[in-house]
Amino acid sequence: MKIKISNIIVKPGRQRQTYSKEGIDSLAASMSKRQINPITVEDAGIRESDGEQTYTLIAGERRLIAAKQLNWQEIEAQLITDLDDLEREEIELDENLQRENLSWQEEVNAKKRIWEIRAKLYGETVEEVAQHVGMSRGSLWEDARLAKVMEDVPELKTAKNKTQAMNKLRLLTRRMALQELAQRGTILADSNEDFSTRVHQGNCVEIMREWPDEIVHCVVTDPPYGIDLDKGETKKGSAHPTIYADDHYDIMEVVSLAAKEAYRLLKPSTHAYFWFDIKAYQKVFDLLSSIGFVVDPVPLLWTKNTPGQVNHPDSRWASGYEACFFCRKGPSHRALLKQGASNVLKYDTVPPGKKIHPVEKPTALLRQLIEASTVEGEVVLDMFGGSGSTAEAAIQTGRNFITIEKDEAFYAGILERLSDAGKSLSPHLVKQVGGLDNPVASDSDEDEENDWEEALDRKRRK
Predict the structure, then answer these.
(1) Is 429 part of a structural domain of the chain?
(2) For the chain, what is the domain count?
């Protein structure tokens, strides 16, 4: 049937808030030839002012806008009766999901809501709802979870697209879980333990100043690069999620002080490996040289299996490698134990879902460095522990280690990681409190959903 457009009521608070001008223009051009699909309305009663029959719009707002743009007086409509509020909302959501592309925020909210409505109206499972909207169970669950988390973490809404939002989400959930571990009171063994088997939390410079000279056999460390990571971009206009403080001035000062202490702690004729930002080559080279290190001017290069990130892809090549200075303490030095190896190190990056720290390096890469410069039982120092990958690599190769991490959440993550790797260690290495042996997350959807619920409950209580 055809109804007067002037008699159609569009109530506020509809699920769809915005429409693109280009989309409406295209639809109007199509409707100028033929209106294929009617709008959906229900009876709104007789208007007292003129006795006209009125209707409430249920679905088809884009077609109604296009019709008004075409100056139509009437529009084809189908009348539905006896709807309750949930049924009205379901029709609107179905309409929106099947028509013009929604913003990613509107899309995930719509999928979450239609899941809730169909579960309540018809008792449908997630598989049945996923089939209804034409997507996989896992995709629907991820979208609905993202929509739910956005209610508590509004900054996720600012992501440029759903992929970036999911990356922020993974980092957030991991950090929340690690923070929980820290709050449980995970502690180290008492001060009578072997000095070489320690994990410390705090400022690395202050901690190292308390230690005696020449107690370690190798330094393998990955300081923050001082590149203002949080202010950078993964792509043009797409900001990084917040990770950690990485201001250039502050970081270079910390690295300078930490490197001095590391030099003092190294035994004579031993090796050190310092990862650095290639753009700061000369500054880091001069810094390490001034401390006393003999620095190989040709750095090691870790080449990755991924193309890497670039701030301005229209004018720069993506960076698919990272650089590391190989240093020696003193004019005389021990020979490399793994000789003839290339200074181009080819290893896959750590998959995003496996990362403890956003800039984590693979243990296989770190094992090669450790095995080239130490023997079993010797002590490897990492002043910027991050994910604990250096400590785990030391364990895997039968070396002792000292690791320091400033951030309490990542510190807790190191202890969690080493609780598995530490099965090969002496049992007195680390005392665990609060179920550290239990994994924080499960690979199953159900367990992961429970983890999210618990993490969000904690956030709400704060």
Answers:
(1) no
(2) 3
User: Does an H or E element contain 235, and which?
Assistant: strand 233-235
302: which DSSP letter?
E
Each residue's pLDDT tens digit, 394-409: 999 989 899 999 988 8
pTM of the model: 0.54
115 and 205 in one domain? Answer: no
267: which 2 tokens? 């035994």
How confident is the model over 112-128, as a mean pLDDT? Answer: 80
Residue with token string 């690599």: 393
Q: In angstroms, rounded to a whole number, what is the distance separating the alpha carbons of residues 360 and 356? A: 7
Angle, CA 93 vertex, CA 88 and CA 98 arms, to 5°: 130
Query: Based on the domain organization, do 389 and 262 belong to the same domain?
Result: yes
- Domain ranges, residue 278: 186-424
Give yes or no: residues 276 and 134 share one domain.
Answer: no
User: Read out DSSP for 136-177?
Assistant: -HHHHHHHHHHHHHHHH-GGGGGSSSHHHHHHHHHHHHHHHH
Concatenated DSSP letters of 2-37: EEEGGGEE--SS-S-----HHHHHHHHHHHTT---S
Residues 170 and 235 occupy one common structural domain: no
CA distance 350 to 305: 10
